[in-house]
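User: Some background: our group keeps a shared notebook of sequences we're curious about, and every so often someone picks one and asks for a predicted structure to add to the entry. Today it's my turn. The entry only has the sequence so far, pasted here. Could you supply the structure so I can complete it?
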Amino acid sequence: MLLEMTADQIILPDAPALDGLTFRLFRDKSDYASVAALMNASSAADGVEDFVTVDWVKNYLSQAADFDPHRDVLLAEIQGTPVALARVRTRLLDDGTLVLIATGSMLPTWCRQGLGRAMQRWAEERLRGIAALRPAGPRVFRSFAADTAAGTMALLGAAGYAVVRYGFEMARSFDESIPDLPLPASVEVRPVAPEQYRQVYAAINEAFRDHWSHAELTDDDYRRWIDDPAFQPHLWQVAWAGDEVAGMVLNFIDREYNEEFKRLRGWTDPICVRRPWRKQGLAKALIARSMRLLQEQGMTEAGLGVDAQNPNGALRLYESLGYRETMRFMTYEKPLDDV
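Assistant: Of course. Here's the predicted structure to add to the notebook entry:
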């Protein structure tokens, strides 16, 4: 289906006949700025409020056990200028399913000319090659789209993908009063010291084990977590029961996002409570504390993301605190034929 010659010459036999079109793999840090600009332009064209920085891209493309940017990121260029990218990676879920993930971005000028279809086929072929080297077991292709991204939805539908899950981005204005909710008597909120970061991360992993599509977090995931610009421990609300983490809201403020979209939004995300401390009002209390903290930082609203089918009723909880849906995202899948 495709012929890989060198990192600077990838041939896609089914690529459209566009003047000056070439394909190559990701090279090095010199590509970061181009990738950030490409992703931002693609999001804007799809009506998605998302803005990435060079530092975010550096973390996004950092090498890991399940991802090698020099083999797993394809760039399409017109006359040497990047106009589209495809990225593939894998995740092994707790139930043994190997998830083969393909995502992409494209400048709107080059949409609907066959370029996305050709790059998607490259991505699937690359993922088939990875799957062939893994132990036998269930495998599934996965991708994502916002409900405003008509082109991506059409591309995935035509390739045989179907929606399997919905997620919402939600926001809550501070114009509405913030409730004063007490913590359960058994816990207290304390700052997190650097030597406790691993403990907090382990608590996140444990708390999400009963969620859909969970995969055990790895050392690579931890490194990405602490290197992410959203890693802002001074804003966290972590509840402790003695020396144990009971629950948390890991707040952050994305200054570049706020500047781009003229907002003053802080993020109350991720949110989790470990099983022994659930159904005691802990999540609600931590979210309310988080909203007040963000308001003190000059923010006028809070945002978060949620799995619409969260098994613990998270969507209803957030709605009860005044959060409302602002964007809808879909997870698409299709089964992989036998490799």
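Suggested note for the entry: The first strand starts at residue 3 and ends at 6. The CA atoms of residues 119 and 144 lie 15 Å apart.
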